[in-house]
């Protein structure tokens, strides 16, 4: 049985229909849920990820896409992301993976999957391969078709702390201020504020200066998020 088949078989025996309905309503998802919380899903996936190992990049990526593209429940998307993120495949978190990650972002197009992809695999690729990945994120930040691709560019350094490339951060945020193509979208404004709020933990002065410099192009939501813990 393939990894995707094993995941689907395990999910078919798990879950809670009442919880599933609540999850689907909360997430405003066209895909139904099985009805598992995050800890229960991690526990279900853990042995499957150990049992089903991939020795080459092609079969690994094919397994991710099999789960993603043929998903009948949202937990299958979460299982695909878990496969991308598994420690056994860290050597493949490189620029060659970015087209696949972009494909997942474009088709997933909602915050639960996009934010996970942005902060973890995309962030890891950027951290390890800055020279090759930075131009890709610059292009994503001005994408003409998807606010979620733009959001990914803004959130890719959430976990970088002192290693944050502030020049890149400034470019991707300025590309999405209120007077830009998607700048008035809630999920763009929220991502902009979140990226600033997170970096304020490392460099509050930089964040205050950014907010001051772009005050007339920054939404109230983004500003409040950015300064939330700065007093």
How would you characterize this protein structure?
This protein has 231 residues and is an all-alpha fold. It folds into two domains: 1-92, Leucine-rich Repeat Variant (Alpha Horseshoe); 98-231, Leucine-rich Repeat Variant, CATH 1.25.10.90. Helices cover 65% and strands 0% of the residues. The chain contains 13 helices and no strands. Helix 11 (186-200) packs parallel to helix 13. It starts with a helix and ends in a 5-residue tail after the last helix.
Relevant terms:
mainly alpha; 13 helices; globular; 231 residues; Leucine-rich Repeat Variant
Residue share in β-strands:
under 5%
| CATH architecture title of the largest domain | Alpha Horseshoe
CATH classification, class level of the largest domain = Mainly Alpha
Rg, rounded, reads: 18 Å
Number of strands: 0
Oligomeric state of the chains present here: single chain
String of helices and strands: HHHHHHHHHHHHH
- Sketch the major β-sheet: none
Distance between the termini: 55 Å
The residue ranges in which pLDDT falls below 50 over 5 or more consecutive positions are: none
Helix content: 55-70%
CATH fold-level topology of the largest domain: Leucine-rich Repeat Variant
What's the number of domains?
2
Protein structure class: mainly alpha
H/I helix tally? 13
Mean pLDDT metric: 97
Show the helix and strand layout:
Layout: H1 3-12, H2 17-27, H3 38-51, H4 57-69, H5 74-85, H6 98-108, H7 111-128, H8 130-141, H9 147-155, H10 166-174, H11 186-200, H12 204-213, H13 220-226
Helix pairs in contact: 1-3, 1-5, 4-5, 5-7, 6-7, 7-8, 7-9, 8-9, 8-10, 9-11, 11-12, 11-13
């Amino acid at each position: 049985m393939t990894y995707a088949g094993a995941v689907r078989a395990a999910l078919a025996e798990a879950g809670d229909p009442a919880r599933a309905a609540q999850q689907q309503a909360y997430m405003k998802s066209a895909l139904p849920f099985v009805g598992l919380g995050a800890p229960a899903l991690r526990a279900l996936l853990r042995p499957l990820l150990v049992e089903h190992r991939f020795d080459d990049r092609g079969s690994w990526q094919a397994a991710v896409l099999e789960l993603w593209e043929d998903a009948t429940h949202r937990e299958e998307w979460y299982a695909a992301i878990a496969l991308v993120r598994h420690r056994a495949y860290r050597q493949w978190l490189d620029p060659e993976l970015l087209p696949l990650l972009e494909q997942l972002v474009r088709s997933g197009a909602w915050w639960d999957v996009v934010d996970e992809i942005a902060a973890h695999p995309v962030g890891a690729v950027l951290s390890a391969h800055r020279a090759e990945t930075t131009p890709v994120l610059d292009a994503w930040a001005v994408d003409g078709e998807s606010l979620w691709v733009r959001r990914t560019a803004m959130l890719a350094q959430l976990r970088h702390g002192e290693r944050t490339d502030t020049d890149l951060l400034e470019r991707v945020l300025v590309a999405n201020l209120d007077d830009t193509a998607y700048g008035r979208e809630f999920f763009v404004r929220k991502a902009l504020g979140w990226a600033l709020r997170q970096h304020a933990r490392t460099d509050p002065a930089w964040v205050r200066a950014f907010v001051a410099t772009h005050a007339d192009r920054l939404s109230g939501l983004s500003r409040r998020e950015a300064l939330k813990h700065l007093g």
